[in-house]
Write a structure and sequence with these properties.
The structure is a homodimer of 335-residue chains.
Chain A lengths: L4 H8 L3 H8 L8 H14 L5 H8 L4 E6 L7 H14 L3 E6 L5 H12 L5 E5 L5 H8 L5 E4 L10 E4 L1 H14 L5 E6 L7 H15 L9 E3 L4 H14 L4 E4 L2 H13 L9 E6 L12 E5 L1 H14 L5 E3 L1 E4 L8 H4 L1
Parallel strand pairs in A: 1-2, 1-3, 3-4, 4-5, 5-11, 6-7, 6-8, 8-9, 9-10
Antiparallel strand pairs in A: 10-12
The structure holds a DNA duplex (16 and 16 nucleotides).
DNA sequence: CTGAAAGCGCTTACAG
DNA sequence: CTGAAAGCGCTTACAG
């Protein structure tokens, strides 16, 4: 059907071995003249190398597989850009696979699609693998890295933000702006090793260091969704206790913001919002959402670097406060 | 390295042929007992089929390659969901390739990555191919479909909205709400065959039918970006001529909205906004943006259906007005 | 600098 | 129901 090196060999009179050598540029094993003829003929015939065949014989691959949630994780673009950049620099290719929305079967299909062909390794983009699927992965002998999710278990490689630091720094920032009654909303605290629990721990630490006594209704758990933000604010509204809230994601922050809008609560005059992530969504809404911003691009770049160099390692990327319009300083007034 | 059918053959005493037959489930060519033994051994050994080898010998593939812009086209998720759904139903796999942001080289790399391995076909997700890259594609003999982009050239297959209808229906809707001075903003009119030009044509047709004389400053061209919206509104602000504007995308609409916010123009009291696309962004901002909504999910689903069935065809998917909060009816007042 | 040959992991007529 | 053999498109020692 499509043209192969055999066709080129026939056309030029050289052997397939020679054709293969010039086409894969094994410099020094052929004369300039031969190369010219073969390359020309390849172009003329519209030759496209069949990488599947190459990968089969060389037993190695230049493609990294990225598995992402189809969930609206609005930061995945940034991570993928970072991955793409590093892959490009290293002359690797990247293919992206959707793993559905926390669906065991979809995850398994995405995993199989990756595992059933020659690949360099797998990058899991904030996908929380079901145990059964993690088992498939670990038993495959293919290197893999989690991005934007961290683990206690140091057998698993991850590149993420330090979630405890996120909680700690976010809270400290709000305290530095004069807030004392600070909510934390939209995060999932259940799994003791994970994101939510760590952030909450950092939050409590900052409170403690500032001598603030935590009240249980300051914590409004959720699933990082817009709806979590809406619900959280409704609960806060009942108590009218807090002056600032840390949202677990930008979407949670927007949920809170919009519900404030509906209930005629002025942000930031009556309630300050500090959101987590700092994606472009923060600048789309009014007032713009201040955030504790994660370096997603860097996560992508770094994880790909590790994968390519086969560095079995974990790493934290930087976090920083981005001041926009949704946090009010109480200090000026207090003074 | 990893376990092959040869290993299973050795382990079970059957030939690789038999192993192959049961593992690829060529029903009727083996006994239940044999199957049981082989499947068991495969599981025990952690066998993973090497699809690259299979594809090499069968000369066909079950993977559809989707090429997307890394540009913030915030509707691509919906399209991909539709693709994924249909692919799943047909037992096909999908891999996604990023083609950068209107970058010739990135496009070429994405294309090569797809073309250099066995695939079923290619779906181009609102990527405006450079001529050189289109040439590569067409000469490859692999079926491909454009999604969310239409062409005059009927040699190219596309699944998209009817852009002239978008312009026409959007304008008619605004006219039905009593608006007469209607802007259209953020679209690119240059390439005569494309999206922007068609929408503008539909817009003009609706105006004409309503006996409204178009004024040239009602058209503010752009590139479908947030910034286009901001700039457009600044220009409108100078003339204070229009009561409603059709934004070329949700981001354009938000750019207009936020600039209104800055200039203390009340939406929709002083200016109505009808945005194009109708993604989730419309419901994130306040007031929520009314839109002429495209059926992106369906585009994905339909194009994948065509690709799998090898239907050489074009199709338009439905469009509809989604009333939210950003369009004011002038009729009540007029009455 | 070039070619003949073996082999990567699979599938599938052909024969039995 | 099962096996021996050829072959998919490539690469790479080995020989010359």
């Amino acid at each position: 059907m499509s043209v192969t090196i055999k066709d080129i060999a026939k056309e030029t009179g050289f052997s397939v071995a020679t054709v293969s050598r010039v086409l894969s540029d094994k410099t020094g094993f052929f004369s300039q003249q031969t190369a010219a003829i073969i390359n020309e003929t390849a172009a003329k015939l519209g030759y496209k190398k069949n990488m599947a065949a190459t990968e089969l014989v060389t037993q190695k691959s230049n493609v990294v597989a990225v598995i992402v949630n189809s969930t609206k994780t609005n930061f995945s673009d940034q991570i993928i850009n970072g991955i793409q950049k590093k892959a490009d620099e290293a002359e690797k290719r990247v293919i992206i696979l959707y793993a559905g929305d926390r669906d065991e079967r979809s995850q398994r299909i995405a995993l199989s699609t990756a595992l059933e062909r020659p690949i360099l390794g797998i990058l899991l983009l904030s996908v929380d693998l079901f145990p059964s699927n993690l088992a498939i992965l670990t038993s495959s002998n293919i290197p893999f890295y989690f991005i934007s999710i961290s683990f206690k278990d140091t057998m698993l490689n991850y590149i993420a933000s330090d979630d405890q630091e996120i909680g700690y720094q976010a809270t400290n920032y709000l305290i530095s702006q004069g807030h004392k009654n600070i909510g934390i909303a939209g995060l999932n605290i259940e799994n003791s090793a994970h994101t939510g629990a760590l952030r909450f721990k950092g939050y409590q630490k900052a409170l403690r260091e500032a001598g603030i006594v935590f009240k249980s209704d300051w914590l409004q758990t959720g699933d990082y969704s817009y709806e979590s933000g809406v619900t959280a604010l409704q609960n806060y509204y009942l108590k009218k206790d807090i002056t600032a809230v840390i949202a677990a994601s930008d979407l949670v922050g927007i949920g809170i913001l919009n519900e404030c809008n509906r209930l005629k609560i002025n942000v930031p005059a009556e309630l300050s919002i500090l959101t987590t992530d700092g994606t472009s969504l923060c600048e789309l809404v009014r007032p713009q959402l201040s955030s504790i911003t994660q370096d997603f691009y860097r996560m992508g770049y770094l994880s790909t670097t590790y994968l390519i160099n086969n560095t079995q390692n974990n790493a934290y990327t930087n976090i920083a406060i981005s001041q926009r319009q949704s946090v009010k300083s109480l200090n000026k007034i207090d003074h």
